[in-house]
């Protein structure tokens, strides 16, 4: 096996986004066959975990808990479908960065005319704000549930903490990846314990694999779950996370690199999917079966009810998971916003300014006393409507041999991507018809 050649035009390890010299060296050893066993995969684990944080953000808590409490196991199939979709989408996003050296926003800027680029940028910014509402409000709510800190001061604490997390980039992106992985681990453990305490029925979970709805409310939550699981802003981000992480020019090396990155995608998205499934299953097992269908509409009530019904500090575990989710995902959302602005407009602003701008709507919502759970669910519906505007450009770019070279999508892959876009657009359209058509 030949040693992969580095693209001479690509920036060095110190400039790469993300990456550092040690990761690059280890990755090159794996690509050249000098690493074997599980060690050959470790340099490539990270980008998909960064993206996966957005798939288990506080918006997921709101939609999954509300869906499980109100409709039991009915929407299990939506989570499973969304996770499978996310694997396809994130693999294409990662592949775009590897093959072209561009992220999706840059690919859009090079492909479309300026009015289209500006339109895509505006909707991407709106999506970023909706994302930050869910993440920021969720983290503040986690502090309130755990320590009784009022939401406005809690929001200020979250702001400081998110700045500190983002500052880890200055010491190498691998450190940020490690912090994010630790947050994911906390969330996984917290929900694993809660599932154990809830003792869900396997037959009931399996019954939810049959697609179906039960009125407008279930469609609203299905669209929200989809928006919370297939996050449009990380479609942009993932391509940026791989575009210079391991710069190679040889087509064969790029194909090997993509195969390694696929392992990262499958592991990370599977973990995110299991966490989402655990949320809905817990709500269905604990609340729906007991007739507590309205509990899921208020995360504070969810927190209290888990403690009283399950005991064993399940409420504390829920609060810790919510806080870990909000802190990590809010930082990643800011990174995604930076990628969007830089890619579409070639404008780069300091992350602290970007952080201040995107968290402003969340502060306004908290200050006005708007129900945080309602804002979380609505934000996820907005995200779902933003998915096609990221997915369609991604499909066009990855199906273009001039952009992708030997990593161009196979026809089957493109067909699956089109089917995903049709499903998302169809669900959104169904929601509009049912909501405004009196259904």
Any key phrases for this structure?
Amino acid/polyamine transporter I, single chain, 18 helices, disordered N terminus, globular, 439 residues, mainly alpha
Order of helices and strands: HHHHHHHHHHHHHHHHHH
Number of distinct beta strands: 0
Mean pLDDT: 86
Percent range of helical residues: over 70%
Strand content: under 5%
| Oligomerization | single chain
- The CATH homology group name: Amino acid/polyamine transporter I
Annotated CATH topology: Amino acid/polyamine transporter I
Structural class: mainly alpha
The span between the termini is: 61 Å
**How many helical stretches?**
18
**How can the largest sheet be summarized?**
none
Radius of gyration: 21 Å
- The CATH class label is Mainly Alpha
Low-confidence stretches: 1-19
Our count of domains comes out at 1
CATH level-two architecture? Up-down Bundle
Instruction: Tell me, briefly, the overall form.
Output: globular
What's the quick description here?
This protein is mainly alpha-helical. The chain has 18 helices and no strands.
What do these coordinates show?
By secondary structure, the chain is mainly α. The protein has one domain (46-436): Up-down Bundle (Amino acid/polyamine transporter I). 75% of the residues lie in helices and 0% in strands. The protein has 18 helices and no strands. The protein has helices at residues 21-31, 47-53, 58-71, 76-100, 104-111, 114-147, 151-167, 173-198, 202-207, 216-229, 232-243, 251-286, 299-309, 314-345, 351-368, 372-398, 401-404, 411-436. α6 packs across α15 (351-368) and α13 (299-309) runs antiparallel to α14 (314-345). The protein is globular and about 60 Å long.
């Amino acid at each position: 096996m030949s040693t992969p050649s580095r693209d001479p035009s690509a920036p060095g390890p110190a400039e790469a986004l993300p990456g550092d010299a040690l990761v690059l060296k280890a990755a090159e050893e794996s690509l050249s066959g000098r690493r074997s066993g599980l060690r050959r995969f470790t340099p490539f684990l990270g980008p998909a975990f960064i993206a996966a944080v957005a798939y288990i953000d506080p918006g997921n808590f709101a939609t999954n808990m509300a869906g499980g409490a109100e409709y039991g196991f009915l929407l299990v199939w939506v989570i499973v479908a969304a996770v499978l979709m996310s694997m396809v989408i994130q693999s294409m996003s990662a592949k775009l960065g590897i093959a072209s050296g561009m992220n999706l926003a840059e690919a859009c800027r090079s492909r479309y005319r300026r009015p289209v680029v500006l339109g895509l940028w505006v909707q991407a910014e709106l999506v970023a704000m909706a994302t930050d509402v869910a993440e920021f409000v969720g983290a503040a709510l986690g502090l309130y549930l755990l320590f009784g800190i009022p939401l406005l001061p809690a929001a200020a604490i979250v702001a400081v903490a998110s700045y500190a997390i983002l500052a880890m980039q200055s010491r190498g992106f691998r450190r940020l990846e490690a912090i994010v992985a630790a947050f994911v681990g906390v969330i996984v453990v917290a929900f694993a314990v809660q599932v154990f305490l809830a003792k869900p029925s396997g037959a009931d979970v399996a019954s939810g694999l049959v697609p179906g709805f039960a009125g407008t409310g279930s469609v609203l939550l299905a669209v929200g779950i989809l928006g919370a699981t297939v996050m449009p802003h990380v479609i942009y981000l993932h391509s940026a996370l791989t575009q210079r992480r391991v710069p190679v020019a040889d087509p064969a090396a790029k194909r090997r690199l993509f195969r390694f990155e696929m392992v990262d995608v499958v592991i990370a998205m599977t973990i995110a999917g299991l966490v989402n499934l655990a949320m809905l299953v817990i709500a269905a097992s604990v609340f729906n079966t007991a007739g507590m269908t309205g509990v899921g509409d208020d995360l504070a009530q969810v927190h209290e009810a888990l403690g009283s019904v399950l005991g064993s500090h399940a409420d504390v575990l829920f609060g810790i998971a919510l806080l870990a989710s909000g802190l990590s995902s809010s930082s990643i959302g800011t990174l995604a916003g930076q990628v969007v602005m830089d890619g579409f407009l070639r404008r780069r602003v300091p992350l602290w300014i970007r952080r201040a701008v995107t968290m402003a709507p969340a502060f306004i919502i908290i200050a006005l006393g708007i129900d945080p759970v309602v804002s979380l669910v609505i934000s996820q519906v907005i995200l779902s409507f933003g998915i096609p505007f990221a997915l369609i450009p991604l499909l066009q770019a990855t199906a273009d041999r001039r952009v992708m070279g030997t990593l161009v999508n196979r026809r089957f892959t493109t067909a699956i991507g089109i089917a995903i876009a049709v499903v998302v657009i169809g669900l959104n359209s169904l929601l509009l018809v049912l909501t405004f058509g009196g259904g």
